[in-house]
Amino acid sequence: MLLGVIADDFTGATDIASFLVENGISTIQLNGVPDDSVTADASAVVISLKSRSCPAEEAIADSLAALRWLQQRQCQQIYFKYCSTFDSTPQGNIGPVTDALMEALGTTFTIFSPALPVNGRTVYQGYLFVLNQLLAESGMRNHPVNPMTDSYLPRLVEAQSTGRCGVIASQVLDRGADAVREAIAQLQEQGFRYAVLDALSERHLEVQGEALRDMALVTGGSGLAIGLARQHAPQGKESEPATRAGYPSSGRAVVLSGSCSLMTNRQVAHYRQQAPAQSIDVARCLESESRSQYADELAQWVLQQPTAQLAPLLYATADAGSLAAIQRQWGAQQASHAVEQLFAAITTRLAGAGITRFIVAGGETSGVVAQSLGIHGFHIGPCISPGVPWVKAIASDVSLALKSGNFGDEAFFSRAQTEFPA
Fold this sequence. Notes:
Radius of gyration: 21 Å
CATH topology of the largest domain: Rossmann fold
Number of helices: 16
Strand order of the largest sheet: 9-10-5-11-4-1-3-2-16-17-18-15-12-14-13
Number of strands: 18
Number of domains: 2
CATH class of the largest domain: Alpha Beta
CATH architecture of the largest domain: 3-Layer(aba) Sandwich
Helix content: 40-55%
Strand content: 15-25%
Oligomer: single chain
C-alpha cells in the first residue's frame, strides 16, 4: 500500500479518491475505521471518517484508529485529508488531528496544502483564495458550522496546533522540488513544526508531490494527491478498471441536498426549474416525536414522482439570510443535527423501497446518507465534476454521487443523471 488517506468527511474522501484514480493509482474507499478482517487490494486506501465537526477528542480517536489499521498493512505514506477551504475553528479539528498523527508517527514536521486550483482553491503567500476571493471574503464566511473569518493559513494553523507554522511561497515552488526540500530543511532548523505550501497551478502540485514523496505524513485537500499520484504511478494509469467497477448502477435516483453553500444554492435553484422538488421544514425536523412521520411523508412523495424524468429533490439548502434566521431561532447545532437525522430516516426508507442511486450535496449530509445505507466501501467511478465521482458500494448495487458544497457547476444534479444514465 503506497498511500493511506484519512479523510475527515465522506465527500472529501470521494474527492481525493477520484484524483488518485484519475492519476494512475488503484484506489479503494472504506467508510469508517475498517475491521481488522477487512482487506484492500489497492495501491491506495482512503478511509472516510465523519470527524470534521465532532468533538476534537472523538476526531483524534477515530483518526488514530484509522492510522493503526493502515500501519498494520505497512502503508508507506499517510495523508490527512481535509476540505480545500480548511473548514475548522480555533479549536480544531485540523490542528489537533494533525498533531496526534505526528506524535503517533514519530515525526516532528509536516505540511499543509489545501490548494485545488482546478476548483478555484489557490494559496498565495500563505493566504487561501476561493476563486478570486480571499477565503474570509467568500461564501465560507457564512458557513453554518465552521465560518471562516481569516484567510491566512499559518495563523489558522497556529491557533489550533502546538507549534509554529511557516510558508513556502510560490516563488520557491517555481524553482522546483529541490528548492522546496531546501526550504523545508531551513524551516525545521529554525524551529518550525509546520509549513503551508503555496499552489497557484497544477504544476505547483506536481512539484509538491515530487518534494514530499518520502514524507511520512502530509496533510491537505485533494490537490496534493495529484502530485503524489503522479510520483507513485509514473508509468501510466491503472484507473480504467476502477472506473468501470464504480459506474453508477441502474434504477431510480433521488437528490438530497443539505449544503447551504453558495454553489449548492445555485444548483438547487437551477434544478428546481427542471425537476420536482420539496424543501425541508426545519421546525418539523426538530419535533422528534413527529420526525418519523415527516420522514414517511417525504419518502412517499419521492416514490410517487414519475420515473420518466429527472429524479426528485429534497433540500434543506438555504441562503445566508434564511440560514441566519434558522440559527437564531433554533440554534446552529440543533437545527443541523435535526436535519441530518431526518435525512438518515428518509434514506433508510428510500433504500428499502428500491432507490439505488443517491445524489447528495454537503459533507455532513453525505456522511449521514452513506452511514444510513450501511455501506462499508466504494469502488471509484467516473467523474461528474472535478473531485466528484460516482462511487458504487463494494457489496451492493447502490451508487452515490457525494458532492462537497461548493463543487460542481449549476447543472451538476441533472448532469449526474443525463451524462451517466441508468
